[in-house]
Amino acid sequence: MYRKIFFLLLIxxxxxxxxxxxxxxxxxxxxxxxxxxxxxxxxxxxxxSLSVELPVVNPKGIPLAESTLVYHDGTGSINAGFxxxxxxxxxxxxxxxxxxxTVSGNNGITAANFIGTINAADFxxxxxxxxxxxxxxxxxxxLGQALPTANLDVKGNLIVGSSANWSGSVNAITDGAIIEGQxxxxxxxxxxxxxxxxLTAYDSAANTVALAGVTTALAGANxxxxxxxxxxxxxxxxxxxxxxxxxxxxEASDNGIGVLGTAGNNGIGVYGYVPGTxxxxxxxxxxxxxxxxxxxxxxxxxxxxxxxxxxxVVYEGDTYTGSGGGxxxxxxxxxxxxxxxxxxxxxxxxxxxxxxxxxxSTLNISQMATGTSGFRSKNCINARNYSEDATVYAxxxxxxxxxxxxxxxxxxxxxxxxxxxxxxxxxxxxxxGIGVYGYGGLSGVAGRTASPTGxxxxxxxxxxxxxxxxxxxxxxxxxxxxxLRHYAVEANEIVxxxxxxxxxxxTGKIMVQLPEYFSVINKxxxxxxxxxxxxxxxYVSKEHVNNTFEITGAPNTKVSWVVYGKRNDPTIQYFDTxxxxxxxxxxxxxxxxxxxxxxxxxxLGISNGIVNKKPLEPKDRELKAETVKPIKKxxxxxxxxxxxxxxx
Length: 648
Fold this sequence. Notes:
Elements: H1 2-12, E1 13-16, E2 19-22, E3 31-33, E4 44-45, E5 69-72, E6 81-85, E7 90-92, E8 123-127, E9 130-135, E10 141-143, E11 152-154, E12 158-160, E13 177-179, E14 183-186, E15 198-201, E16 212-215, E17 224-226, E18 249-252, E19 257-259, E20 470-474, E21 483-487, E22 495-503, E23 509-513, H2 518-521, E24 522-532, E25 539-545, E26 548-552, E27 558-567, H3 570-579
Parallel strand pairs: 2-3, 4-5, 10-11, 12-13, 16-18, 17-19
Antiparallel strand pairs: 1-2, 5-6, 6-7, 8-9, 9-10, 13-14, 14-15, 20-21, 22-27, 23-26, 24-27, 25-26
């Protein structure tokens, strides 16, 4: 058997000079195969990866030699065909002229490959031999449109995403689009005039958005999510929300703008309208970022006068008549734990003080109602505070003589006692609270009056002080450098004092005339007499009757007299019924026991004081302006709102 096989090989194979010929006696190459009926069968393998030699191996146990040729059977994700090993990877043996796109997909595609034409012919896609899409040689793409006139020209309806949530008929939308089965763009719709297109959301889920405009960091400068332009009295953008969704929802990132409204010729850039009586919102801005802003109103017009407005909020009550309506024209809610609810700056808050020259106020508020309400609520500012800090805190950081708070009121003959400031701090049950508390380096409270009969500081009740009561004047002998203090005489009762000097007559007597009101406002009178120029002591020979009393002493001598009377006018009688002035030592109310008027005098801290307010220095409560990044300037042909009359 072996001899027969060897004999056949001798017949079919001719070896000459290291050349092998099969079917030929004179091989012209290292291996020359000649046959008219058979072919060459290359080893068939199942490659697992184009970058792995296995399952092909070198019989010598070394890496495959370059140009090793196999045929891959098409298993796995590698296309079938002849592959050769280039030392690194398996390479499909093919030529550029023979590359075809297969119906089962292609592998090894590069950016240089494409489907299309290289001449000026259109590219056409058909099904059932009917044209479905055409790409013109100019680049316009048509879906169902043989002659597209735009980059994308669609004839008929368009569904973007899924239409599973769409409850209506797709064919009910005329030349429109359904986006994710929730948002519809069409030529007409229910309740919308057929002359305009519309964008609406039909999904019944909450928080449905009809239109969202987004700009990202990839967008160019001054990118705008949604931009509408209208001339004359037309509407650039009109959105209606009749449920819990949004009429317009806009979102911007990386300094973009969600909604930009510009107007000219008395137009309105952005207009929000709530026709119902529910809790609808005409305009809503939301920011969930760290430094962003829910809404920014930017005005840039150097020619604007003091009537120009960056933001106008109008609340006109019932049917624009100004009557009725109980809502607020403007309300700000801050539910966070950091930052202020409202910050107002006149000038650049990121710059140094003095970066703007202006004679106007940062905040100007006017109450146009007249008269007073039953509970005095017609206020320009109504503030409530539930914390331990001040309800209103003002700091003047200027270097001049400007006050922290300044108020002004014009009195008249009908209301001569109108007050510029009224402060209330009262608990009727315990009579607690301080109406006005002042703490200053020079004085806690200082006042002046423009009237010769007025008072710099006036109390309608008792005046008390744990310290001394004094007057302070410029020292007459050195007024530029020194002051002079005199202190009030204090007693355990309310006393009026009257004094004078008088000369006795030849009989050694004299009647002293007291003021005509003396008997009306005094009782329990006492006298002090001092002789001048004589050792003879004078005495009161007759006590006061009809505002006079008699002194007897050495004839023709001078007498110094002092009369004390316990105050007894109707006013003090009224207060005495409440305060009981004769009770010199009184028990402190139960809620004030353990508290001191001057705790420091007993080695205690200020927290033990009846008035235990710690003085607040400006450095403790300095207003720190947050760094506000101004909105970038938007170049627009219409940014000039001429007046603040809102068209109805």
